[in-house]
Structure formats: structure tokens, C-alpha cells
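Sharing a chain and its predicted structure for anyone who wants a worked example. Both blocks are below, sequence first, C-alpha cells second.
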Amino acid sequence: MSLRTLILLSPFVLAVILGRAVTIPEESPERETGPLHNFSMNRYLGKDRPLLVFSPSREDASYCETMIIWNRNVPELEDRDLALIEVFEEGISRAKGREIPRDSAAELRSKYQVELGKLTIILVGKDGTEKGRFDQLFPLQDVYDHIDTMPMRKQEVRSRQDARSE
């Protein structure tokens, strides 16, 4: 073994000797880049409202129209803590821009019983339950109105108002 290799390995060897072996964490929420190797919808509980967009592919016309609308409304969507999860039959699926494994995409399709070959959009609440399902392009104002009637959203708005008035 070369001296360079020993120097590079020394922190790991020392950790093992001291009984503090390094473990690989599941997925750190602070790390917002790179693929999500251990994707789980649980990462959004209490934090975000996932908006699952199921589509045959990125080239699907309905998907493209949906993304144009999404991109024009990012501030309003972020204000409501919406997390975009794109699930494709063909191609790389993503959660908040990060690649998710193909098996996770297949599990989502199965869990939400989404039919192949068409666009399906599902709104999931911060509590992890399905709040709305759309099989076509929809007016975002309908989604905003739906979210704004949720008890947790009302509490968020009150908390923000209280914070501003202090």
C-alpha cells in the first residue's frame, strides 16, 4: 500500500479503531443536490405538499403545458409549500428537481393507482393523504383555493401574519 493511500485512509481507519465507524445517512434533507437514492414520500410529511405529476414522458404535450404553467407560478406554488414530483413512464423521474430511482417511480404509480399513458396530477397534503386528483390540465387558482381551505394552510397564514405584526 502506498503512503498516499494510507494518508487518505487514515481518518477512516482511525474512526474504526476508535469505534466510531462512519455510517451513510439515509438522505439528508439539507443536501438538496444529486439523486435521491432512498426516495420516500415521508420526507415531505409536515414540511411540503407534494404535487405528483404522472406522465408518459417529458415530451408529452399535456405535461409540457403543465410545466409552462408551473414555471409561471413558482412564487405562489412555493408560498403554499408545493413540492413538484415528476413521475415518468419513460425517462428520469424527479422530486424537486432531483432524480429518483425507477423503482420508486413505479411504487408511486402503483400506490396512487395511476393509469399508464396519460397525465395524472395528484395533490398530497402535508399529512401525507391525497387531497385532490386531476386527469387534465387544471386552473392553478382551483388548487390554490383548495389548499387555502385546508386547516394547516390557514394556520400557516395566521402564523405568518402574527410574525409580521411583531
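Comments welcome. Helices lie at 3-17, 61-72, 74-79, 102-111, 140-148, 151-165.
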